[in-house]
């Protein structure tokens, strides 16, 4: 288990810390640290504060992902999903939410708005080459697999 230093900012002092909601849950729920409700009109978006900053260990990231319930029931999702919090970022974690439904949606203080997954990061060394090895798939992209 990795340890992450978490700083609760003043505007989130009364909110619970992120928590796993079940024994095997992958994500910690992030809460809205808004002073007033934020209403997202259809196709509207907002940058929603969580009131949290953190110090991830080197070699880790936090992935901010949609909550399936918000997406399925209300059409509200994370716009840049998954959002990445880098290990060297020390500012407040905020979530870009978008309302893809045809009705307005209001976000209240303390509402669960996203989930955060702490994950290891693999770094790559890019090596430029003149050609790539051949595969059965080749350069077939978007929707090209599984077709005869």
TrEMBL record:
Class in the EC hierarchy, top level: hydrolase
Statement: the UniProt record of this protein carries the keyword Hydrolase: yes
GO biological process: dUMP biosynthetic process; dUTP catabolic process
Gene3D superfamilies hit by this protein: 2.70.40.10
Keywords, ordered alphabetically: Hydrolase, Magnesium, Metal-binding, Nucleotide metabolism
Reactions mediated catalytically: dUTP + H2O = dUMP + diphosphate + H(+)
Essential cofactor(s): Mg(2+)
Residue ranges occupied by any dUTPase-like domain in the UniProt entry: 15-146
Binding site for substrate: 67-69, 80, 84-86
EC number(s) recorded for this UniProt protein: 3.6.1.23
Biological or metabolic pathway of the protein: Pyrimidine metabolism; dUMP biosynthesis; dUMP from dCTP (dUTP route): step 2/2
Described function: This enzyme is involved in nucleotide metabolism: it produces dUMP, the immediate precursor of thymidine nucleotides and it decreases the intracellular concentration of dUTP so that uracil cannot be incorporated into DNA.
HAMAP family (UniProt xref): dUTPase_bact (MF_00116)
Alphabetical list of PANTHER family matching this protein: DEOXYURIDINE 5'-TRIPHOSPHATE NUCLEOTIDOHYDROLASE
Name this protein carries in UniProt: Deoxyuridine 5'-triphosphate nucleotidohydrolase
Gene symbol of the encoding locus: dut
